[in-house]
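Format notes (please read before filing issues)

Several people have asked whether sequences and structure tokens are stored in separate files. They are not. Every record keeps both together, in the order shown below: the sequence lines, then the token lines. Line labels are part of the format and must not be stripped during preprocessing.
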Amino acid sequence: MPARPTVEASNVVIKGILIIFTLDSYALMDLGSTFSYATPYFALDFGIEPKQLLEPFSISTPVGDYLIASRVYRGCVIIIQDQETTTDLIELEMVDFDVIIGMDWLYKYYTILDCRAKVVKFKFPNELVREWKGNIVESRVRVTNTIAEVASIQSVPVVNEFPDVFPDELPSIPPDWVIDFKIDVVLDT
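Then the structure lines:
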């Protein structure tokens, strides 16, 4: 489950929009991933039920955690310039991407990755080379910590040094202000 800072710093990944079945997915092509994965929320629209893996396995994350993979979506269709390919996508809880495409699919479909140019070339036997260009698309998902504790006035160093200047409680950060600002412009001036 790659975290954004790890992905942004890596030069062995390509990210962009990839069509799975008929759905646009925010995808990460990752040379460091052995298998391909899909988040269960994105997979809801596949129209297929996941199957139990015969042998669940653990996946290490960039932050040192481990997740257990136990379900797989078999026969998922990935479309590259009107060419249908198939792969199995293992269910994985992740927040920054809909799918991660790993070496299982990349190897199967004769891919050559140019990580500097962010291009993936497919050399299908007896066919023209097809290209998929990754892009620098920002993730649509933002993570917020809804259970974070509100900072106390004593936890702010400068405020702590001057308690008589600041109120005992901060109403909100930043404070809510009503701003009434207007510029009157005369036409043709």
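For reference, the curators noted about this record: The two ends are 57 Å apart (CA to CA). The longest strand covers residues 66-80.
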